[in-house]
């Protein structure tokens, strides 16, 4: 719908891209002061890269997950966004291990970015490049570990319950923050929530190995706090009003607490 | 394809921000107008279940507003929507009240049963089915019943209220169960009955006080009998909560009321 209004395609699209970048930055130190400069910067970045992208592909080199300076262009065709990327070298005749390792590295980099964001904002580009592979792996591993931990006759039930809770819960939390007026891309938020489940996974592994109650409870609570903190870091960048922040954070606390409680009570 | 849709929403927002003249701002004044009316329907946004902007009007609340409404809903008084919600009820409070209640019921009931097992040192069993039970019971009662009630009043073409109001009333009325469930951790069988009965009475009175004026506005006197159905269903829900989640002391031997090491 919005693309219908676009007058000169390249100009407008770059603006949308820039806005996206700004909106989705997960940690914004002082939005009032630095937003204009960072906007300017990213504006220049995106415009330069999109100029270099399609016409001169060999000018920019980079890899997914390793270098944020990869060339990419986005354009809209009748409301559908298409994206072209060039990673710097031909991926057709590289070994399969290189392909898999690149994806795994990208998952690892995003995990690090979500759970332990470097000081001063870090690399926003990394999270714009959302994927759902990492969340899928984390969700499946969590479900498998919890179902191993559960009594024999209930393991299937636990498995399906965890899978559906993760999927439905993260969708509901995302929609909730969108409804409250937060500006966040749907799938990126799903991606971040999925990666933020990783501390809970850690807690479940610990409690699989150590069955003492006095270890499980502090570990799960600490991992719960870590998960909430990690996802809050991201959602701080969604420009919610100050008075509504709690309303967006509270469902996230509930979402992570279900799993923490499951680990504690098993 | 769906990503394309959401990306479009983002771009829309951005245009709103920069251009200062736009959809979100244009329907805000109309929303203020409809706030004074009894049935809030934002006329500017076209009705579509897939339009996220349509639902945003029902999530236009602040933290303090929601906390105040949840608190006021625990006190059974008539005129909840007109007095406490300024004529427009939100959906955030009801939905997350129900979800919190589900989680609290699951937590307290698993805690109770694991304490009982810990005391009697019997074989431990997982209580995960309780989570699915609480999800289906609470969402069915908190979302299904008000929808049904609204549908019946619509079908009989009585009562000027929207589906949102009916959902909101039911959702907020369940908020009293949250502190009560925490109190039900005290392992005294008779006390739990008293607490649940008090909670059911309070929230039932709240529901009746707020729904009866809607039904009473009908010409047909028989419609008022619907309030009996509301009360009976409410009692049933309270009984189900008691039996499903807090029945451990009544089935097994009553554990001695001791101070809890796990709390």
Automatic annotation (TrEMBL), chain A:
Residues 1-88 are annotated as: Disordered. Residues 34-59 have a biased composition (Low complexity). Keywords: Membrane, Transmembrane, Transmembrane helix. Its main location: Golgi. Residues 123-262 form the Yip1 domain. It is found in: Golgi apparatus membrane; Membrane. It comes from the Eukaryota. The chain crosses the membrane at residues 132-150, 156-175, 187-209, 215-235, 247-265. One of its GO terms (biological process) is endoplasmic reticulum to Golgi vesicle-mediated transport. GO terms for cellular component: Golgi membrane; trans-Golgi network. It is a multi-pass membrane protein. Belongs to the YIP1 family. This is Protein YIP.
TrEMBL record, chain B:
It is found in: Golgi apparatus membrane; Membrane. GO terms for biological process: vesicle-mediated transport. GO terms for molecular function: small GTPase binding. It comes from the Eukaryota. One of its GO terms (cellular component) is Golgi membrane. It is a multi-pass membrane protein. Residues 83-239 form the Yip1 domain. The chain crosses the membrane at residues 95-116, 128-149, 169-186, 193-212, 224-245. InterPro entries: Yip1_dom, Yip5/YIPF1/YIPF2. Keywords: Membrane, Transmembrane, Transmembrane helix. The keyword Transmembrane helix applies. Belongs to the YIP1 family. This is Protein YIP.
